Each structure stands twice: as structure tokens, then as C-alpha cells.
Amino acid sequence: MYKYKSIADMFDKCTLIDKEAYRRKVNGKYESISYQQFRENVMMFHFALKEYGIKKNSKVAILSENRLEWSVTDYGSFALGAVIVPIYPSLTPGQINFILKDSDSEILVISKKETLKEIYPHLSNLPLLKTIITMFSYDEENFEGKEILSFKDFLAHGKNLIDEVKFKESVAKVDVKDLLSIVYTSGTTGNPKGVMLTHENILSNIENSLLAISDLGKDDIFLSFLPLCHIFERMTGHFLAIYCQATIAYAESIDTVAENILEVHPTVMASVPRLYEKVYAKIKNQVDEGSNGKKKIFNWAIEVGKQVSELKQKGEAPTGSLKFKYSLANKLVFSKLHQKMGGELKFFVSGGAPLSREIGEFFDSAGILIIEGYGMTETSPVISCNRLDDYKFGTVGKPINNVKVKIADDGEIIVKGPSITQGYYKNPEATKELIDSQGWLHTGDIGVFDAEGFLKITDRKKNILVTANGKNVAPQPIEEQIKLSKYIQEIVLIGDKRKFISALVVPEYERFAGMQKDDIYELLNNEINSRQQSFANFERVKKIHILDEPLTMENGELTPTLKVKRKVVLMKFEDEIEAMYK
Q1: DSSP for 10-43, written as a single string
Q2: Domains and CATH numbers, the chain
Q3: What's the rounded mean pLDDT across residues 556-565?
Q4: Which pTM was predicted?
């Protein structure tokens, strides 16, 4: 049915190759790790786990940012049939404690000393947790009955136990139906839910994603910077990359991506729309501040690029004078943008949140295609995506093979297929709400198919605002349009059971240095009004409140893919919201 019997089997067969597997920054320079070195590290970790009593279905938690040890832990555990529990380093000690306890984790692999100190008070509440493996040196060897040892020492335990025959025997015992990972989704209210994903869920999603986007292989370099704790990055820049026997380069952080791109020269990169929005805003700003001559050349090049993009979407190529113009536009403008992206980029992948049509069209005009897809943790994650030769901006493409998608009577997108989760760990009630008696998973998203079969997401079902006049307002498309402004970083629409629509606005603060508050409000109101003319009057923002600080993940206002946690934000700024309606 699948090329490999399990993700463990995939690892075993795909790592028998003599080439570069990873790149990581050490002392200011990128160093290379071969597939052979990676395989040896995974085998050491695997046999050390075995020595420590970890077996099939044992839970191993990872509390770390992206790094090689993350991958070693992941694949080393799978080869035993153990289950990985990823935990975001940005979570609070209480949230970390909940996940460790709820998941029944027996081993914790942790990257930062400060985080370990923060969760110390909770360790006594975790009787199943026996061992803590640190990616740093640590003086204590035992705390609250938990053995503490370094990652290096843990690998040393397994080094002398490496046995290829026994490793393959262990891998052979892992079945495609076995549980692979419990991924806790960030809840805006209440505790997070653990999504159970099997080896089949992931294998099915890899193989059918590759059928949709076939231009990937051994020569590709993936730049990984989104959190591996999130299923989007774990699928694209981790599982799928190893399946293709490609090279994975870790960015130092999300703040160094622009710098790391120039060092790594990636061919493929997955990101959330916020990165593309920032790049777009920066380019537009540079053009606005340039000479009139440069503006004219840039705008001319973009117009030429749009004509070529329209032809490409029809499956046609430019000819005659348009071909010459595009070649000139590439030489004068687009080649410089390509160099800023490392010079080797084939395409971007976008997911986790909606990508603005305007931004997608802009990048494609410049010869850099952003492949937008749609998915969720519960679907492993890809449900649909645009293709390299079949795409439409403003949509999330067509469903991938093996995933059935239909629109329910109330407009909700529901899906079925082998990449669908078994449900939530130890939470049958939530599972029943997620998956109906016919096996359809309810995504919570509202969407429509167009005449050509492309799926368009309207909004989250729970985000639809119903005004006091009974009008339904989908905030997402309005917010997307307004956020294209160079003055606005984020906007959150409000209006449920209210007489009119208002909004909380996060401005681009540096643009307003030295300006009076009234002038800032006037400028932003004018900017918002100019960008919402295409919407009905009842959908338009009538009042705004400017926030003093940006929304952040650290303050619990954004998800790891930088989506706004609406309920959190609405509760936090309740007084400011009420003031707009007085």
C-alpha cells in the first residue's frame, strides 16, 4: 500500500546513502552532518532508550527548539515503536506539566537549563517521568526521583550496543497502524488536546503530498525554521525531506532567516504567511523610498510579470515581445530578489494561515511561486494544496489524493481519509465532536469549491461575527486586505452581537515615531477606509483602538504559526473593546 512499512522503515531505508543530511550552525559557521553520521546518532539513541526500558507505545517528550537532537530523538524513538510528544519551549511551566502528565511521558528531552528550572516545582507531580535528558551540562544527577543526564552521555550508553541486525529487527516490529506521535494543539481556552497520529497518517500524507508537488528529490535543500513541534514543519522540513533523501538546514532562529537563506541557498522553504508579508512590505517600502526612475522600472517589471503569471496559470509560456520584456525585467529587477532568497529557490510553501492573494500574485510575477496549502494537525496535516502547474491565488488548491473533501450543509469543510487522526488522546468526548459517526472529520473551517475544483477558505466557523442586526461577517478576508497596508502589522475585527464592526489594531510602530496620537488615529482610519471599499457597508470597520504593544506568542496572544488567538485577545482587551461601543 505504501512504499515503506512505517516511518521507522522509511528512516532505515532512506538513510543508507552517502550524502549530506543536515546543516547546523556551530560557532558562527554551518557544519555538515552526513546521512551516515545521522544514522549512527539515531541508532545510539535507539539502543540507549532500549537500555532505559523504553518500549513500544512508551511516550518520549521533546521540549526543544529546532536542532539535530530533535531529529535524533524523533527517529530513534520511532525505531522502537515509542511515541513522540513534542512540546513548544514557549509554553508556560503549567502547560508543560499538563502535557507531560496527560501524555504519560516517561522520558523528557530538554534543550534549555532555564526551562528545566522553571518546571522543577512540577516534577514531583509526574510519577511516570523517570529520566530527563539535557542538551546542556548539568550538575545534579537526580531530582525528585528523576535521573538527569546529558544527551551526549545518553548517546554514549547506546554507542557500544549498536547492532544493525537488531536495529532492523526492531524496525520490522513497527506497524503502519502504530501510534507515532501525540501532538498537543494550542487551546485558546482550557487545556490543549493531544492529537494521535499514526505511522500511516504520516506516510499517507507524505506520499500524496509528493504526488501533488513532484519536483522534490535528493538534490534539494530545505531551510527549517518553523517549530518542529508544529505538524506543518515536521511534515515538510523533516519527514518529507528525509523521504526524499534531501538536505535539511536549520536556521538559527526565525529572526536570522534572511541571513541564513544567503548562507544555505535553499531550494525549498516552508513558512507561514507572516514571513511573506514582511518581505513584501520591505520591498514595497524600498520602492516607495527610491527614485522615480526606480519606481517606474519596478512597476513596469511587475506588470510584465503579471502577464507572464497569467499565462503560466493557463499552462502557457510567454512568446515574442513579452518573452523579451520578461527577460529584461528579470535582469533589471527579479534577479536581485532571487539573490536575496539565496539564488537557488524553486518555490516556497505556505500554510498555517491564509496567504493574501495580492502577495501570492506579487511573488509569482517576480518568478517565485508560493505554493499555498491547507491542513490541520488532525489531518497530518495536508488536506489540499496548489500544484506547480495548477494553481490559483486566493485558494488553497485542490484536495490531495487519498483525502476526500466535501462542504457540509452549513458550509463547513469536512474531510475523510487515511491521514485523519484516530482522535484525541484520552479524550473520547472531544473525539466525538471532531469525527462524526460516518467518519467525517469536521475542520471548523467554512469554505467553498469553485467551478474548477479549487478550495477557498472563507473563515473559521467560530470566527464568523453575527452583528446585532443579524448580518454575518467573515473577518478573515477583511483583515487580510487591511493588513496589506504598510502601516498595519495586525488587526483583529470585533462585532459579534454588536451594532457595528470595530477593530484592535497593531500598527507598524516605527512608522509613527514622533507623531501625535490623534494624527496616528486619523492616518490609520484613512488607511483602513481606503482598503475596505470592496466590502459591504455592514462589514466595514467603523471604530478602532490602537494597541500599545504588538501581539506575541510569549504573551499567549499568537499561536506558533503566528495566528491570533481571538478569544485570548478579546478577553485581554475587554475594557478597550467596550469603550469603542460607548
Answers
A1: HHHHHT-SSSEEEEEEETTEEEEEEHHHHHHHHH
A2: 7-174+213-267 (3.40.50.12780), 273-343+346-460 (3.40.50.12780), 464-580 (3.30.300.30)
A3: 88
A4: 0.91
